[in-house]
Amino acid sequence: MAGVADLIKKVAAEAAAGNIDIPDNLKEKVLGGVSDSIFDSIKKTAASNGGIEQITSLLSGEISASSSPITSMASQIFSSKIAPKLGLSSAVTSTITAMLPAVVDKLIAAVSSGKDGFNIADIISAVTGGSGSSSKASILKGVGGLLGKLFKK
To answer: pTM score, two decimals?
Structure first.
């Protein structure tokens, strides 16, 4: 997960650059929180009924990040669980959650381009812990292969 989490942090840092005034001593924690909230949202979605379809709709571009329940859940996780732990003001929290659709869009673009060395299967593997023993993980890996073909990766 560390490599994919680093990619999310990189994408979040690019999206935040010049848009959010985060104190230097909190910047790494905030970026980690953004990454964690996106991962938690994808994990919870994958485990839910119809979740795989939601993930594939988002990753294939059938639904935009701004209207995706995955992004909405990531915003809720960040604002209710992460921001309070970091002591972020409501204004900073709102600004960060407002940029989450842009972070998710940039993440999808980075993964689909392959420029950072990641593909859809890497994201799926990171979310499922790379375990092939459960049927859910196997299904997700199959979806990852299908999406990899879709994105030609």
So the answer is: 0.75
